[in-house]
Amino acid sequence: VKKQIALNPRSRLLAALLSCAVCMFNAHAAPPAVQVPTPLNVPDTIAERVQPCVACHGKEGRATNLGYFPRIAGKPAGYLFNQLVNFRDGHRHNAVMNQLIANMPDAYLQEMAAYFAALELPYPAAPSGPATTDVLAHGEALVVRGDTQRAIPACTQCHGAAMTGVAPAIPGLLGLPRDYLIAQFGAWRTGQRHAAAPDCMARVTEKLDTGDINAVASWLAAQPVPARSRPATSIALPLPLTCGSDLR
Ligand code: HEC
Ligand code: HEC
Fold it and tell me: Is there an atom of ligand 1 within 6 Å of 96 CB?
């Protein structure tokens, strides 16, 4: 049974990868029609089965420096699992991701999430891009202190003082490309990305204007990832806004 579940996703992933050059840059690309034979003599381990993921997400799940792919290694398992479920069930939109994991059972998504969450790797700096000192200072202020007058909580109140996330379901904010960060706020704003209701990130996004988003993303992407980048195990409660994701 296990073998069967494992091979189908793999052929689907390989087929999708062959059309990768097109689909990565074209959200409306047609699904790949390529027939790929299942490779023989490949050990059937989770590390082997996630090889197609690594082509985009970087070696062993680290972010590549191509600019857009988020790192997935070392992120909290519950967070990764929630994202995979959201892509599969259409609550979060990305043509490639939606297609790759369509129909994969929860247990398999859980297995992949656990695999990537357990990887502890040093991260290369994320691509950041040009930003003035003023922009960076504004970004830092919002991330670390928030803005009480505008009722914007500090990002660190939920994502952890070290910004490496909080197990099991709040992701870290470091090591993510600036373009990826900006795109996520865009996705929350346009309803392309949802988390379980109440979706606290959607509420945070409503409070930020484009200048704020640019500043926050520029500052975050310019921060080095600490050597110990594991998510924190607990956070001061209550959180400044209620989040529907299962955070226990
Ligand atoms: C063709 C490239 C590609 C492949 C192959 C791919 N991904 Fe992705 N993945 C992406 C992109 C692009 C995003 C960001 C989508 C967005 O903007 O929301 C993403 C997002 C994700 C996220 C959310 C990350 C976060 O921080 O929220 C997870 C988890 C993920 N992918 C897991 C996987 C797994 C597991 C596989 C293998 C089954 C895989 N991906 C294969 C391109 C890819
Ligand atoms: C009230 C708690 C809370 C606050 C405050 C908060 N976040 Fe989040 N954030 C979350 C949760 C929970 C998630 C996971 C959502 C999901 O499951 O999709 C998240 C996800 C994210 C993601 C997606 C990460 C990825 O890898 O795709 C980004 C980016 C992000 N937050 C940035 C910020 C920034 C920047 C701020 C400050 C301006 C902020 N957040 C403030 C709770 C919070």
Answer: yes
